[in-house]
Amino acid sequence: MSAPIRAVAFDLDGTLVDSAAGVAQALNTALAAAGLAGFERPTVRGWIGDGPDALIRRALRALQRDDAGLAARLRRDFDAATLQDPAAQGEPYAGVAALLHALSQSCPLVVVTNKPTPLARAVLKAAGLLGHFAAVHGADTPAQRKPAPLLIEQAARRLDLPAAALLMVGDGPADLLAARAAGCRAAWVSWGYGAAPAGLATDTWRLDAPRELIARLQQPAPIH
Fold first, then answer.
1. Where does the signal peptide begin and end (predicted)?
2. Whole-structure pTM over 0.85, yes or no?
3. Hey, which bits of the chain come out as E strands?
């Protein structure tokens, strides 16, 4: 864990982009098409982080429905609604665009998200952030989803770096657990959707504003 940080991996929802309103809109559009009741934004906000399949499972559980065929239909309609209007998926958090611009001058940046890659790329492009990233690694299969380390390891291989040279930045427990499983350091952001961890590991940073990441990186482990 003491290797210099040479690249930074970012989660998407709740870390780079405040997408709760857009995710709720896409979910409710899919539910309405199936004749089902929708949910308020605060409820949906609490379901974000584990990918659209988990989001839909939570919605169906709340509706007391257990139907694999319905879940598959909702997923198709959710994806279609997201791709139809990716700009509605939210705005970058204040300070994120400036952070990415500054960091991308000195090291490669990647996205590691439980959102499927096509949806993630569409949202990043609509938010004006896609050009900052060397690659976008989305969870296109269940096995890839964080807290599994597979996406971080995939990102490291594509950058020709050891996983220990990456820093994983995210707002949820899955981000921190994936980083630990991959053997890289992590930073938890307080502005996202995930609840504050009960206790951060000594090598995990807490960030209360995007600009704090630059200051952190300039201290003990400079980027090479």
1. none
2. yes
3. 7-10, 17-18, 91-92, 109-113, 135-138, 166-170, 185-189, 204-207
